[in-house]
Amino acid sequence: MSEQTPDMGPDTGPHAAHASTGTYLKVAAILTVVTALEFGSIYIRALTPILVPLLLVLSAGKFALVVLFFMHLRYDSRALAVLFAGPLLLATGIAIALMTLTGAFLVFGR
Amino acid sequence: MTSWITTVDHKRIGVLYGVTAFGFLLVGGLEALVIRLQLAGPGQRLVGAETYNALFTMHGTTMVFLAVMPLNAAFFNYMIPLLIGARDVAFPRLNALSFWIFLFGGLFLNASVLVGSPPDVGWFGYANLTSKQFSPGHGVDFWILSLLILGVSSMIAAVNFIVTILNMRAPGMTLMRMPVFAWMTLVVQFLIVLAFPPITVGLVFLMFDRFFGTRFYDVAAGADLHLWQHLFWIFGHPEVYILILPAFGIVSEVLPTFARKPLFGAPVVIYSGVLIGFFGFGVWSHHMFAAGMGPVADAAFSIATMLIAIPTGVKIFNWLATLWGGSIRLTTAMRFAVGLVGLFTIGGLSGIMHASPPVDLQQTDSYFVVAHFHYVLIGGSLFGLFAGAYYWWPKITGRLLDERLGRLTFWVLCIGFNVAFFPQHYLGAIGMPRRIYTYSPDAGWSFWNAVSTAGAFGIALGVLLFMIGAWRSLRTGARAPADPWDGRTLEWRTSSPPPPHDFDAIPPVYGRDTFWREKYGGSGRGGEGSGLRNDTRPGTLAAPTAPLAEHVHMPGGSYWPVLTALAMITTAVGALTGLAVVIAGALATVACAFGFALEHHRNPAHEHQTGDLGVDHRKVAMWVFLGSECFFFGTLVATYLAYKGRSVTGPEPHQILNIPLTTLSTFDLLMSSLLMVLALAAVQRGDRWQARLWLFGTAFFGLVFLGFQVYEFAHFVQEGLTLEGNLFGSTFFVLTGLHGGHVTLGVIWLLALAILDLRGRLGARDAIKVEIAGLYWHFVDVVWIVIFTLVYLVP
Question: Does B787 touch chain A (CB under 8 A)?
Fold first, then answer.
């Protein structure tokens, strides 16, 4: 696979040294395999007790791969990671609280 | 006139915000006076119950969204670039777009009054009072659409100011060297970016309930009316800080200037502001103690609410310590700033009372609460805004205000305000409920209501005196020097008013209060004298080595912001008049968006936008926007899961979802992300053939995904799953449909880039444009990864 040329446009800034095409293809292959695993896991009865956490972990892994490699967050300024990860974590917390308060988890009950 | 309509100058846009918002403040004030006249005595018949409901709804909505927020925005616009040593904001045309959307949104809301159908459900619009069943007219529709429009304006502005503050500071101005007002502005912009998506989702649900018959707030279908309260207050409580933190920032500039001391513990004041913003997201349910959430939730939100008082109290002590031992000049601005410290403390203390659920249960929906939040929003926000107005008026207009009239204005406002609102604590304590349009003479509320009404007219007189002072200043006021208050921050370093390019030379920054140090050395304390500086030469104290102003490139005017805003408002008007107008407005919006985007596509002056973070402005903006989108889709997904299994009729998800098919569409979307990164790499290395191939390929894969979605939707409708059929249908179609809408926008964006490439207008130097489109596309992809798991796979 050809490595990405360093001849980039002037607007891409000093943090624009992104991954190679080979890396992108590997990430795409992993995403495909994980998606197939997700699909297959729902049909395996033995996985039922751990199915939800398993699916959440696989989904989080795919999410991280796309964000880190395709969105270049692994190679870009840390400030961008903070700008994205902060709201993402806060939104996740509020979403969990919202579901809890509306009784979705029945943790606190009414 | 044309130059004002097309202006993209942050100072002019600041003036436009200020004048427009002040106009809306007068409208909201007049509504308040009618409310107070109606309640001045028992059994009054000035207005009927329905009109009264409309009055308090319009008053609350106007004051929050059309007066205080945009008055804050006026100061953000005018002062932030000057305070951080920038020539303008990061995106001047987007800044103009924010203003025009705000103006048209405000006019749209008030048009409801002109057509005789104002909203009458309170500024909080609790479900299910807002349903078609209980509010059959167009009033709630006006309210929903205008809030959505105003939300767009706020979001655009917030992203713009975050990028401006993070990426456009003067050399040497580290984050901790920024003025506190800039810091509070930054915190507020993050609050806007993160708090508006939940209310947007709540409003979208309400709009779909009213326009398309979905069941989000239909108890008979299994819905939980608390959902609206949660979504509203997840926004609503941070909104309180959106309204008050700018005033805290202003006071933190005014007090040190007129105490001739540095702000005591400035870093702590900054950290406190950040903590207030952060905790602000964890206290929303204290507005819902009366809703019956259970003891654990009540305790958690009670503790969080008490915690937030700590950083707020820290600020108050820091302001007091700033005054302690200072060489105080009691100018009008200083009086308002000190007034804020006192009056906000009263409002803050009554707020802490509400943190206790048992106490809150007694005070909820009583006039005690009305008194509390007016002490926060008038005693706090508005007094802060008046402090800012008197402080920065000379900088903005180049004229001085009459200080004697200013002092009179302060006292009339201060006394009027306390006479109007302090008795309301007592009225609430003796049982007067909110939102009643009349009361019996036997209730025992007559005297203090009469007093309160007299106070309200005192406030009106104070505002009138301010207007007289402003008018006289503009006509005959003395010329203001560059630095009339012997200020500490960079805005006083340039002329009053500043030139279009703000500074002849961008001033270097060596520490906090750098201009003060420049004048007096490093002590931070001032020299002799305590009055106004008499140096009236324009441009005084600007660097003598400044390059000629004509060498500074400033962006020219543009019609696209006002045209785009007009097209958007046409779409909203169409929602109330007819589908044809909606389609025309939407098409016009897309056309204007293209005109907007392509106006400076190849303008060399717009190429290099890398700032302090070492990242292009546009890329920072996109990441901030994506952070906001996390909240948007997080709220949608949380609602889907909260309502999962609550439908009282079928079909259920497991009966209808086609997982093999969706796995294929998921794979398709994931692969589109691969093509997207290949397209970016090709554009970056100038390989036009591959760039074109991968861009069209990405768009094609996006279209295939949309094709899957259309097939799935059509199949589901055939199987009996519709938007209005049950809760599952409502939540599923709105969640996946809004994601599909994002994909559609992405496809349009990618096709536009591919067409640009076909026409030879997309080279390596345009790679950043492909990169930000790619970021958006990948985000749409990761959202689908979450939806695929939580909606389709998790049983």
Answer: no
